Amino acid sequence: DEGPTETIRYVTRFSCGEPRVNSYGVEYVALIVEGDSFIYHQIRKMVGLAIYVLKYWDDERRVLEMKRVINDPRRRFVPLAPSLGLMLERVMFQKENRTHGGFHTLLDFNFVEKQMREFKVARVYPEIDSKEQAEQRKGESTQHIHSSMLVWLKFLDRTKQAWTKYFEDMWMPGPTDLDWLFNQGSGGGGPRAGPRDSEDTARVMPSLVEAVAACGGRCNFYPDMHEVFIERLRSRRPLNKNGREKLKQDIKGFRYAGCSTQMLTFEGDTVVMASNCKKIMDEYGKLEERVDRS
């Protein structure tokens, strides 16, 4: 496991570039981030949070709330911005140049600055634009929210009340639960290899309920509940189509022992939380009543 110092990164610049209008008439602005190094999803999380607060918080609240979220040690829901458009523009070698500059040729890309800019305009930007348009033309059931900014913005609007809340660690699934999720109960070779059963589902049911509750008690199963649930698990791996269908069947068939009420039900593709869901979880979902994770 990484220690706390190994996950600290220093951002030296975060600025906006000049806006551009693409061939489809859509205006974009580039966000430029410089730092000593980056961890997985760091930039997408930073951009996702920035867009969220700009869209849904007014000017007076924005700075105070950002400070509160950033300085709060509890883990929070932060929306993950789309990967489309994210690129590594250059590697900076200031430290190496200062240390070895007198003995070796300086590592500097300034002499090809013009060619780099021309390549982005001629090749990179059109590729981003065409992929964005292609994803928008797909039907809603096949759209991927992390491959289109417009699709993601619509998703963010539907789930806006779920974000910047903090996690309740007592409901956090353990490592074996993530193995169950990733192996999808198909004998994938992990600690929980083999068919899933009600005890397996009981491990993640509180987090599933919390994901739906964070969205207001009802939401689309996919992508809304799925994306919030995956974020709730601190996961980097979304479920594939078969995994989502299996999870849907698990939700439909699950009940805590001795309880006849379903906590989550389906109305078409919409997941709805039962009105007495909290009471059920209080009664049957206490830590000493649940499956031993050790």
Describe the structure.
The protein is built from ten helices and seven strands. It is mainly alpha-helical and 294 residues long.
Our count of helices gives: 10
Mean pLDDT: 77
Shape category: elongated
- Which runs of at least 5 residues are low in confidence (pLDDT < 50)? 184-193, 286-294
User: Distance between termini?
Assistant: 18 Å
**Which quaternary structure do these chains form?**
single chain
Topology order in helix (H) and strand (E) letters: EEEEHHHHHHHEHHEEH
Strand content: 5-15%
Note the main sheet: 3 strands, antiparallel
Helix content percent band:
40-55%
Number of strands: 7
Q: Cα-atom Rg, whole angstroms? A: 22 Å
Walk across the major sheet and give the strand order: 5-7-6
By helix and strand content, what is the structural category? mainly alpha
Question: What can be said about this structure in brief?
Answer:
The protein is built from 10 helices and 7 strands. With 294 residues, it is mostly helical.
Features of this protein?
three-stranded antiparallel β-sheet, disordered C terminus, single chain, two-stranded antiparallel ribbon, 294 residues, mainly alpha, 44% helix, 7 strands, 10 helices
